[in-house]
Amino acid sequence: MEPGSGSGPGLGYFLLPAGGALSLTGVITGNATLISLSWIMWVLGILLLFRNRSRRAVDPRVLAAAAAAGDARAVRKLRALALAARAEGRPDAAERLLRQAVQAGDVESMWELGRLVEQREGLAEAEPWFRMAAEGGHAVAKRLFRPGGALHPDGADPAP
Fold it and tell me: What SS3 class is residue 152?
């Protein structure tokens, strides 16, 4: 499914139990029309779920271009790909994807990039990313810079 298309997996997951409820109501009331409609809902729900499972993987370059053009959904997908790469033990791929999302202005990606850099190189190297996230309004990043925070323990400016 392309970014911006209407029916996601949520609709399939909605149609299946709704069809079940409609079927049960039809059986209890003896209404054959409700039972027929429930079958339609079940079939549509299953088809939507299969369609979403058979989609091709999204090309990160396409997402990066869409994110640069201002597509918020593409930015979120870039971040999700980055987090998956980090979880799979591919920090270089995660960093590359997060940097693309950061270029699109994604505050959450700034935070995640800071966390990634902190894990690899330490807090001092991650500070610019955390500062950028804090300036963008990220609540947890802001806590790092308040008095007593990890990047403001004694009230001094943490930047050299």
Answer: strand
Q: pTM of the prediction? A: 0.60
User: Among 66, 138, 76, which Cα is nearest to 107's?
Assistant: 138
> How many helices (H) and strands (E) are present in the chain, helices listed first?
8, 0
Which residues, 6+ apart, have CB-to-CB distance to 84 below 8 Å?
A: none
- Give the pLDDT band (50/70/90) at residue 134: very high
Q: Classify residue 156 as exposed, middle or buried by CB count within 10 Å of its CB (0-12, 13-18, 19+).
A: exposed
Buried b (16+ CB within 10 A) or exposed e, 130-143: bbbbbebebeebbe
